[in-house]
Design goal:
Length: 234
Amino acid sequence: MSDEETKKKRGGCLGKLSGLLVLALLVGLGAALYHVYLPQDLSDIGGVEASLTTPASPPRDLRAVLQKSIEGDYSVTLSETELNQWLTRELKLKQGGELAQWVSLKRVCVRLRAGVAEVIIERDVAGYPLTTSMFLQVEQTESAEGISTQIHLHGGGFHELAPIPTRGGRFGQLTVPQGFLIMVMPDFRKIADLFETEIDLGFQRMARIKIEDKRLVLDPKQPTRTESAGEQVF
């Protein structure tokens, strides 16, 4: 076989390989976009079903509950159902004011699973639901000076063997890396601004925060530690 024929054969193989790679990328992109436009299934979240969004008795005033917990120095447990019922009520009250420009906003809800909270925004676009979400994790460091709290905007790695990149949230049913949150962060900031007082009471002024399956446990009691006890992350 001549050198020219060999080069043609190699070029043909490289061309076919390049074509397959491009095709695979296009198929992957198409599948990703398809899952972006598929809304999340929210039926597993407490307090979002139609029968649960209008409880027999009004949900507790969480601001008052958290304030009394801090003043009385006792822990409080908030269920996923209670949090979502409260969010539904509060957002309805604010819909005509701060949220008037969000005409497509349908609801905001929270999914609580062990160690991770997922805040979900659902919109109605021409009668079709679209969802975006953001994962949250709480890391607390305990030392002789007290407890410091950090809120991480991610839900951990995609796999235990691949901790980087971290899971930032979901666009529809597609889980996306943390860096993609920059596209939706303004929406979540608007929601956070509406509940600035509750966020301060529940996350800044509580000594211990624990996200469990279907519930959030908050405790204002500061631990008693000696300076020699060292630092503990939990």
